[in-house]
Write a structure and sequence with these properties.
This protein is mostly helical. Helix content is 72%, strand content 0%. It is globular, with a radius of gyration of 28 Å. The termini are far apart. The model has no long low-confidence stretch (mean pLDDT 86).
């Protein structure tokens, strides 16, 4: 004969009847799906649908004339991707984009980190004013920035050439030179974008405990040694975030050449995004979407490499 204790009897009485929790969970799930249904529908209609549709377009020969009969186009397999790599202008655009990223991203991060360190350690008064001043180009219209930089880089009466003339240097026509047009755009991009990375670096620096640097100072480490061996390792997550976001933005750079040089001179500043945009304008939709997905794959691969190299160890 099994003896049931008082504690077991209470547990049995408190146990809800079978099936009741299932009904409660199903009702909660139904309520949750009702709440997320508008987002799911919008996502499928305006994000997933166009993405899948454009991916399908990249394997067809669809052009502007085929918009009235989009299902009458012919499939070309990977023909558009092969055609993109065989296109000399696309290869030039890919080289320009790599040039822009390889120089622009490190420069932006170095300038941003230097500005963040100066604001965190050196500038105590009017710090908010400097933050606003450094961040202002980030939220300024590219058209206004183009007006400023065209004035600075003008060949005859530009501010930069005027200053160089004071020391006997005859400055070039920066935006019309195959040699100097891309460095000029990189300088403008660094000036325009380092403010956002600086704010993130500043938050990372202010999140490091003061005791860490004090311990290094007690051990006899100099300023550079403390920064190199204590501060930078602790900033690794911040460096990863800023390098990924800056790299993704620079791989898609479009506004700078579109507004300043229109891709010239002689395609020396045309980017992959700008060339893809031009192909859409020419009505070569299949080829343009293939170029866009090539850029997408490159962005994904480079982002993966950054995560592998800069992740916390």
């Amino acid at each position: 004969m099994t003896v049931v204790t008082e504690t077991e009897a209470r547990a049995v009485r408190r146990t809800p009847p079978p099936g009741r929790p299932r009904r409660r969970i199903s009702r909660e799930s139904a309520a949750a799906w009702i709440l997320v249904l508008p987002f799911v529908l919008l996502f499928l209609a305006f994000t997933a649908g166009p993405v899948l549709g454009s991916l399908g377009m990249s394997f067809t020969d669809i052009k502007q004339r085929d918009l009235r009969t989009p299902f009458a186009v012919d499939g070309v397999g990977f023909g558009n991707y092969v055609k993109a790599f065989e296109d000399e202008t696309f290869r030039k655009a890919a080289f320009n984009t790599a040039y822009f990223v390889v120089l622009g991203v490190p420069l932006t991060l170095v300038v941003a980190l230097a500005a963040a360190v100066l604001l965190d350690r050196g500038v105590k008064r009017f710090q908010a004013l400097f933050k606003v001043g450094y961040y202002l180009p980030v939220v300024t219209s590219i058209v206004a920035i183009a007006v400023i930089w065209r004035f600075v880089l003008a060949p005859d009466s530009g501010l930069l050439n005027t200053v160089l003339g004071w020391v006997g240097i005859d400055g070039p026509n920066w935006l019309a030179s195959k040699t100097w047009a891309m460095p000029s755009l990189i300088a403008m991009a660094v000036w325009r974008n380092f403010g956002s990375a600086m704010i993130i670096f500043l938050a990372g620096l202010q999140g490091i405990p003061q005791s860490v640097e004090e311990a290094g100072q007690i051990d006899g480490a100099g300023s550079w040694q403390r920064f190199r061996y204590l501060i930078l390792p602790l900033l690794r997550p911040t460096i990863l975030f800023t390098s990924v976001t800056t790299g993704i933005g620079y791989l898609q750079f479009f506004e700078e050449p579109f507004v300043m040089t229109q891709g010239g001179p002689l395609n020396s500043t045309i980017s992959v995004s700008m060339y893809t945009y031009n192909q859409f304008g020419f009505g070569n939709y299949g080829l343009a979407t293939a170029m866009a997905y090539i850029l997408f794959v490159v962005i994904a691969v480079i982002t993966f490499i950054q995560f592998r190299l800069l992740r916390e160890k």
